Amino acid sequence: MTWINFEAFTAVSLICWLAASAFVVIKPKSRTTQVWASVAAIAGTLVLAIFIGLLWLRIDRPPMRTLGETRLWYSLLLPAIGIASFRRWKYNWLLLYSLFMGALFLLINLLKPETHDKSLMPALQSIWFVPHVIVYMFAYALLAASSLAGLKAIYMDYRRKNWSEVPDLADNFVYLGFAFLTMGLLFGALWAKEAWGHYWTWDPKETWAFITWTAYLIYIHYRYQHNDNHKQAMWILVIAFALLLICWFGVNYLPTAQNSVHTYSS
Amino acid sequence: MKRKTWQAPWSYREGIVIASGLVLIGFAMQLTLHGRGIQIPEWPGNLYLALSFSGILALLHLFYRNSGVVKWFRSVPAAVTSVALYCGLAILMGVIPQTKSSSGFINAIGLNSLTSSWLFAQANLYFLSCLGMATLKRLVPFKVKNLGYILNHLGLWLTLVAASLGSSDLQRLSMACYEGKVEWRAKNENGRLVELPLAIELKDFKLEEYPPKITLIDHNSGKIVLQNKRSQYFSLADAPCMLGNYRVEVEKYLPESGYIGERFEPVNEIGAPPAALLKVTDTTNGQSSSGWISSGSFLQQPFAFKVGDPYSLVMLPPEPKKFQSDIRVLFPDGEQYTTTLEVNKPFSIHGWKLYQLSYDVEKGRWSELSVIELVRDPWLPAVYIGVFLLLVGTLFLLRDGAAIKKGVHHDLD
Ligand code: HEM
Q1: Which of B67, B128, B247, B371 is the most exposed place for a label (fewest CB within 10 A)?
Q2: Are A256 and B95 within 8 A, CB to CB?
Q3: What are the percentages of helix, strand and coil residues in chain B, rounded to 5?
Q4: In sequence order, what are the residues at sequence separation of 6 or more whose Cβ sits closer than 8 angstroms to the Cβ of residue A79?
Q5: What's the sign of the alpha-carbon dihedral A83, A88, A93, A98?
Q6: Peptide bond between residue B9 and the one before it cis (omega within 30 degrees of 0)
Q7: What are the residue ranges spanned by the domains of chain A?
Q8: Closest to B356 measured CA to CA, from A126, A123, A266
Q9: Residue B9 has what DSSP assignment?
């Protein structure tokens, strides 16, 4: 494998990303540091892009075959999406989160250049594996943030404080999170077609993913009409997140679990 | 401002009444038909259904757009309540196992086979009517600023219509192929044998395994000692390693071995399991000893190494890393193709998709059987177009986020 100068490229990318993170952590409110942070983050991402390009030329095929190679793409795409969203929304945590995830994947590659040594059942050895899991991680993080906002609104309402700003923040999280949730669901379906022959079988895990998805769909549409009547909407958010948690952790404990192909423990 | 129920414009109250009505009618239908679900017609019947459904929605939108009922279908309360109905059904499906139930009542009203129940079909039809009218609302007349909306709503509508109406044309067959034999019959989902317009010859089935893992068991109880610890197992490839207080080194590793006398020797036979000669040091007292372990196979007994009462080291059967079938696909007119099937790497040919499904697990690496799944799904392109529209639609959600204008700020019909 051609990981020869990978360490050097990784080091440069990581340093750039670290600098970007430092900027927004040290002076979170300033517009100029946000610009500098973007510049540093973009530089780090570009270095990585160059490396992938070189690797591609070197091995004379798209570097997308092994898990290590897919992770490389993730280290590139996550920060790219993160930086774009950051430029648009100016949320520092978005930048931090995406750079952190990107760095994490780079580090894994650094420590385990060619990884298949952890036994991975054949069905999981797919190029869809990483994208599917990653967008879900993104979605869950964003939707968790939206529910926190929802709980905060409900609490503030209980204490009779003014919470009129909170729902808009929650909305932002939900729209972004829902977009990723939809991608995760669809990637999962496309993958299932390749691995199991059909894109949708109402397997318990799929069913619960669908339930979660519809719950946020209800929120989006309810909010679209009830812009002022926040409180019910905040409760929908909390319930939706409870359903999400069932989908994530709870499915294995339900009476339907024995029929699932997605419970990998034996 | 008080509004009577059913007085236009309808809202959530009516939405809930309609949804509950659908539930009641669905159960009633199921009961009167003695648990028989609904059957979606096969090609071309389902195509006619799809065309008439779209046609009716389009006509309603073009010529009756101001009628109260049409307005209802494209309203937000209808969207919310019809999605909630769908969500509710999915929750039932997610909690009640979708297999024959011990409760006669659950069987009778179709709760154990929801996807083919009347209730599900009605909820689906209602939901897709709402979604369809909502799509048309901003599709005709077309405005560029509605592009994201159109991609999301049209994409979902197309995906679901094609997936549900196309389900009757879906064929999933599994074919048991033996090495060196040609097979043209396969079993369908009801276990019935079907003859196919193509035949498959299995030339070779190959299975690659991960290096076997070793673990420490209590040989009195048969339980793994380090249960729930992170270093419960070790791959032989990672040796030397620590298991509990024992330091384990591999002195010799034989991927295929036979038990001869008191030791293992390399052999090249069917059913020859891996074996390893280990050097084990008890770190509490520094004593070390050597011994063989083997995972065994369908022909040979496993072999454990007692390292001190009550502990033994055992080798777990190697896990499959990859399995594949070299096959030749033959058609009656003499056309033929040679290819290799692997999990996650299906092969498409004349509308069929061939998948590596399974093999004789007992025999593992020496399996002469390869089970190949054959799938035909003529509606797949339509479903994928819908999925593609949805995926592009998500990019609009990412771009617009909460900047999406709320309905209260402009007219909501
Ligand atoms: C992929 C799934 C869906 C997404 C991402 C989505 C997204 C949206 C968004 C963002 C809006 C706000 C309008 C705007 O974009 O300016 C909206 C409005 C709306 N949606 Fe959806 N939606 C989805 C599914 C549905 C479904 C299943 C229905 C109906 C059953 C529906 C019915 C409506 C209606 C009636 C409106 C109001 C349109 C108007 O008043 O002009 N949507 N949707």
Answers
A1: B67
A2: yes
A3: 40, 30, 30
A4: A17, A41, A44, A45, A48, A98, A99, A102
A5: negative
A6: yes
A7: 1-114, 127-266
A8: A123
A9: S
**Three-state DSSP class for B354?**
strand
In angstroms, rounded to a whole number, what is the distance separating the alpha carbons of residues B181 and B203?
8
Helices (H) and strands (E) in chain B, counts: 8, 19
Single-letter amino acid code for the residue at B296: G
Q: Are B235 and B210 in contact (CB under 8 A)?
A: yes
Residue pair B325/B177 in contact (Cβ under 8 Å)? The answer is yes
The amino acid sitting at A166 is V
Query: What is the rounded distance in angstroms from the CA atom of residue B138 to the CA atom of residue B144?
Result: 10
* Beta strands at B347-349 and B257-260: parallel, antiparallel or unpaired: unpaired
Chain B residues close to A175, C-beta within 8 Å: 397-398, 400-402, 404
C-alpha span between A79 and A41 (Å, rounded) = 8
Q: Class of the B171-208+321-376 domain?
A: mainly beta
For tokens 């998948």, what's the residue?
B355
CB contact under 8 A, A224 and B407: yes
Calculate helix-pair angle for A166-196, A204-225, nearest 10 degrees.
150
Report ipTM (2 d.p.): 0.86
**Cβ-Cβ contacts under 8 Å, B153 against chain A:** none
Cβ–Cβ below 8 Å for A195 and B404: no
Give the span between the Cα atoms of A146 and A141, in whole angstroms: 9
Those residues whose C-beta lies under 8 Å from the C-beta of residue A94, and which sit 6 or more positions away, are A82, A85, A86
Is residue B10 within 8 A of residue B73, CB to CB? The reply is: no
Burial class of B16 by CB neighbour count within 10 A (0 to 12, 13 to 18, 19+): middle
- How far the first Cα of chain A sits from its last, in Å, is 34
Tell me if A247 sits within 8 A of A209, measured CB to CB: yes
Domain boundaries, chain B: 1-140, 142-170+379-408, 171-208+321-376, 211-318
User: pTM of the predicted model, to two decimals?
Assistant: 0.82
The Cα B354–Cα B348 span in angstroms is 6
Which helix (DSSP H) or strand (DSSP E) does residue B384 occupy?
helix B380-400
CA dist list (Å): B310 to B219, B224, B276:
6, 12, 21
**Distances in Å between the alpha carbon of B311 and those of B139, B162, B218, B225, B263?**
71, 59, 5, 8, 21
Please identify, in words, the CATH class of the domain defined by A1-114: mainly alpha
| Best residue of A211, A220, A226, A261 to probe chain B, by most B CBs closer than 10 Å | A211
- Digitized pLDDT (tens) for each residue of chain B, 413 residues in all: 567 778 777 888 899 999 999 999 988 888 888 767 788 899 999 999 999 999 999 999 999 999 989 999 999 999 999 999 999 999 999 988 887 777 777 777 778 888 888 999 999 999 999 999 999 999 988 999 999 999 999 999 999 999 999 999 999 999 999 999 999 999 998 889 999 999 999 999 999 988 898 988 988 888 888 765 546 778 887 778 888 888 999 999 999 999 888 889 998 888 899 999 999 999 888 899 999 999 989 988 899 999 888 899 999 988 888 889 999 999 999 999 999 999 888 999 999 999 999 999 888 889 999 999 999 999 999 999 999 999 999 999 988 775 665 544 333 43
Which of A175, A194, A235, A246 should be substituted to probe chain B, the one whose Cβ sees the most B Cβ atoms within 10 Å?
A: A175
Helices (H), chain A: 6-26, 31-59, 67-89, 92-111, 129-158, 166-196, 204-225, 230-245
Is B395's C-beta closer than 6 angstroms to any atom of ligand 1?
Answer: no
